[in-house]
Amino acid sequence: MEYPDPEHGTRLVVSPSKVVLGRGAAEEVGDYASTYGRRALLVASEVIFDIHGESIVETLESAGMEVVTYTDVRPDPTVENIEAAFERWQAEDCDVIVTLGGGSSIDTGKGVGILAANGGSIRDYGVDRAGYEGVPTPTPPIVAVNTTAGTGSEATRSVVVTDESTATKFLIVSQNVVPTVAVEDPELTRSLPRSHTAFTGIDALTHAIEAFVSVQSYSVSDDYARSAIRRISDSFTKAWANGDNIEARTEMMIGQLQAGQAFTNASVALVHGMARPLGAQLHVPHGLANALILPYVMEFSAMAAPEKYAEIARLMDAADDDTPDREAADAAADAVLDLCTDVDLASYLDEFGDVPERGDYLAVVGEMAQDAIDSGSPDNNPRKPTRKEIESLYVRIYDDALAPDSPRRS
Ligand SMILES: [Fe+2]
Fold first, then answer.
1. Is the pLDDT of residue 106 over 50?
2. Distance in Å, CA 273 to ligand 1 centroid
3. Region 174-183: what's the mean pLDDT?
4. 103 Cα to the center of ligand 1, angstroms
5. Which of 26, 36, 105, 347 lies 20 to 30 A from 199 at CA?
6. Where exactly does CATH 1.20.1090.10 map onto the chain?
């Protein structure tokens, strides 16, 4: 379906105001941030701050800024993270948010911005309470210095926050949280370990594929998605195999940015809907949860949009123009599975995952399916799943990819 058109009206395309891209971009953070204010709140995790913090503080101070730091961002940032960072913001009278890190730091920065501009409690801005576009006033300027490739959060209107009081995650979606400047320096991704190169890379590929097949996709988001799928499938294994391959790191950085631009304008679908509850059960990083689900959901969904899945296969060089769409569509899921095998994703379950016994897993499948449905993301899937179908997918994933003696793990 093409937009904008008279029947469907206009579409809002969001993007950061500026993208600073390429090797050395991180050295220019001060130049950009200082155009928006004098006192920066630098938000990072301790680990990332230890690696890159000094140089970012230096570029900000060289540009005449004063820097206040908050370095306690956790993976899957919590309500408490955001509240504590916001306290620093208020107490120190800051005027620009600079995030250093991947999705967790960026989302913490967005959360600070929401509270700074709107007050109240961050929990109240979740889509379950405030709806989509539930943040009335735009955040102060956010300069997102990205260190992963990646969540694409520097280009999106989404914020994912963990509510520790209920052990659940909630989502905030608003055009008023899109960062002002995205700084994409591939040099910063050199320090990403293989495991996280794998997790963040497959997350980005999932964003691109889900946006491409989403029922909300349209010409503009499709262009971002096509480019992202091509770049990521060409460069993912190269960046994983040799983290110093700066050309591959650069392609991954661009690919994940475009994947972020694709999904923030077309939405994610069933994979992300199922990944949040699965990730919570297995205690695995978000990208690994996606990787476990993506091939199965592609196989399940291909019949509803064979031309789209066939194009994915062609973009991944898994089918050519002469292959009939239905056949090529099946090849797309296989191509993703091969990519996951190439980067050894299944092996990370041992290190990062906590797979329950089959009986314990089956006992929570119904609850996971309900959580997936409640997220709203399955509604964007080309094949609309029933609750029973989602449950069957979860069981299939267990038997094929999670059980210690399953085909994908042995
Ligand atoms: Fe994601």
1. yes
2. 10
3. 98
4. 9
5. 26
6. 194-402
d(CA 117, CA 260): 24
User: What distance in angstroms lies between residue 229's CA and the mean position of ligand 1's atoms?
Assistant: 14
111 in Cβ contact with 122 (< 8 Å): yes
Ligand 1: centre distance to CA 47 (Å) = 22
Cα 215 to the chain's mean position, in Å? Answer: 19
For residue 329, the CA-to-ligand 1 centroid distance in Å is 22
Residue 34: partners with Cβ closer than 8 Å, 6 or more residues away: 60, 63, 64, 65
How much distance in Å is there from the Cα of 254 to the middle of ligand 1? 16
Per residue in 48-90, pLDDT tens? 999 999 999 999 999 999 999 999 999 889 999 999 999 999 9
The average pLDDT across 323-336 equals 96
Output the CA 271–ligand 1 centroid distance in Å. 9
Residue limits of CATH 3.40.50.1970 in the chain: 18-189
Q: Are the C-beta atoms of residues 99 and 43 closer than 8 Å to each other?
A: yes
CA of 82 to the centre of ligand 1 (A): 20
Q: Give the domain 194-402 fold.
A: Dehydroquinate synthase-like, alpha domain (1.20.1090)
CA separation for the pair 369, 390 (Å, rounded): 6
The percentage of residues in the chain with a pLDDT greater than 70, rounded to a whole number, is 98
210 φ, ψ (degrees, to nearest 5)? -65, -40
Give how far the C-alpha of residue 192 lies from the chain's centroid of Cα atoms, to the nearest Å: 16
- At 1 the pLDDT is 46
Three-state secondary structure along 54-77? HHHHHHHHHCCCEEEEECCCCCCC
Per-residue model confidence as pLDDT tens digits over 142-165:
999 999 998 999 999 999 999 988
Structure tokens belonging to residue 32: 């950009």
* Entry pTM: 0.96
pLDDT band at 8 (very low <50, low <70, confident <90, very high): low
Ligand 1 centroid to residue 343 C-alpha, Å: 18
pLDDT digit string, tens, across residues 194-236: 999 999 999 999 999 999 999 999 999 999 999 999 999 999 9
Centre of ligand 1 to C-alpha 204, Å, is 7
| Protein residues within 5 Å, CB atom, of ion ligand 1 | 203
Q: Which fold has domain 18-189?
A: Rossmann fold (3.40.50)
Distance 69 CA to ligand 1 centre (A): 27
